[in-house]
Amino acid sequence: MNKEEVIKLLEKNGFSCFVPLDVRSCFDIAAKRDHLLILVRMMPNIDSIREDQANELRALACALGGSAVVVGERSKSYKLLDGTVYERYGVPVLNLKTLDGVLSQEFMPIKKFFKGKFVVELDKPIFSKKLEEINVSELARKVGVSRRAIYHYRDGEGIEFSKAKKIEEILDTPLIKPIHIFYQQAPPPPGILKDYLQKLRELGFQVTPVRRGFDAVASKKESIVIDLEHEEKLAKCKAGFMNKLGDFFKSEPLFVIDKPSKHQVDGIPVISREEIKKSKSAGEVLDKVKERK
């Protein structure tokens, strides 16, 4: 599996892709189709992703209104199976064939590998109705679980795939729910922010820090992708990436430079940390960005 294979698969399914070739980033590929935005991290060995990397990916996807996914081939102990969803630190993990099936809508995975077992969820409305029509104790006995467990399964607790298939067979009813991969994941708890980002948060921006590629996404009605650079010549080297990033995510790129000599670098507005610290409102910051565009 390589990056070109994943890009080809995404483009085959109607996605346009952005690849941050110029810089290291928390995502390898950003892909969008209509209103769906996906941030893809490629990890041949899925156990090599660290918690901080997964949290950064989730946070950025959440800030941009998208979904995060890891595409891999194996863990330290096993090869990823087709049609099965895995998870690392709250991010869904798939192999390439499963991703293709989901994107093309040829199939939706139903099994999740969790704590060494294949588990699924049952459709609550359908299962609830069937439970009203049968002897629940008798069903529990046939499946080999407690009556209480049956009600836990009804309420969304994961059930082993083999037990779920047995319930479907006994009730002669399809009950297993497909797993939706692309959903807005819960963001991780906010971490400690750099001084000027903390000020933006105090002014009312929703600030998501990013450690690789750029500095943060700040949102207040509209979103800004921000990069802190110490010198204008370094910002100039980064301008191509920031412009492409802003275009793809429909966000305004912004450089923060301590002592800028001008208000723009290659079409990207420049603001100093001191100006941010002295700002009285989010609107004041946004006005400066618009004026200097």
Report the CATH topology name of the largest domain. Answer: Trna Endonuclease, Chain: A, domain 1
Mean pLDDT: 91
Number of helices: 11
Oligomeric state of shown chains: single chain
Q: Which spans of ≥5 residues are poorly predicted at pLDDT below 50?
A: none
The helix content is 25-40%
Strand content: 15-25%
Topology order in helix (H) and strand (E) letters = HEEEHEEEHEEHHHEHHEEEHEEEHH
| Cα shape | elongated
Distance between the termini: 41 Å
How many discrete structural domains? 3
| Structural class label | alpha/beta
The largest beta-sheet arranges its strands as 1-2-3-4-6-5-7-8-9
Q: Say how many strands there are.
A: 15
**Biggest sheet: strands, sense, closure?**
9 strands, mixed
State the name of the first-level CATH class of the largest domain.
Answer: Alpha Beta
Alpha carbon gyration radius: 23 Å
Please state the second-level CATH architecture of the largest domain.
3-Layer(aba) Sandwich
